[in-house]
Amino acid sequence: MADVNRGNRPLSPHMQVYRLPLAAITSIMTRITGHALVAGILLLVWWLVAAVTGPQAFAAADWVVRSWIGFIVLTGSAWALWFHALAGIRHLFYDSGKLLRIEEAERASWAIIIGSVVLTLLSLILFFFA
């Protein structure tokens, strides 16, 4: 049998110790936001279908869209759309061989996070006040 010294081997990092890099977190969030966009799309499709169905169906759908839950879903969908779009642009840079160093990838991740929040707020301001 092989002489294996099991006591001196390094242990795998535990989840409480290991921290994912920001680029990995934003990559995971890109996938999550892609799926989360379905909630906003379903709400908008329901609203549009109700508009052509009749006044009662539209009144019910419009009430939900204009309620606080509709506002949260649509605002979250707007943020998810901006986040997903900016992450897609970052991915184009990755494909061209740019922003691959750790510092650049972290700055690009922060740009996605900050940019998505700013663009969402700008979209809300334009929607409500323009």
UniProtKB/TrEMBL annotation:
Q: What is this protein called?
A: Succinate dehydrogenase cytochrome b556 subunit
Q: Which Pfam families match?
A: Sdh_cyt
Subunit composition and interactions: Part of an enzyme complex containing four subunits: a flavoprotein, an iron-sulfur protein, plus two membrane-anchoring proteins, SdhC and SdhD. The complex can form homotrimers.
Q: How does the protein's chain sit in the membrane according to the entry? A: Multi-pass membrane protein
> Which compartments does it reside in?
Membrane
Q: What is its main location?
A: membrane
| Name of the coding gene | sdhC
Q: What does this protein do?
A: Membrane-anchoring subunit of succinate dehydrogenase (SDH).
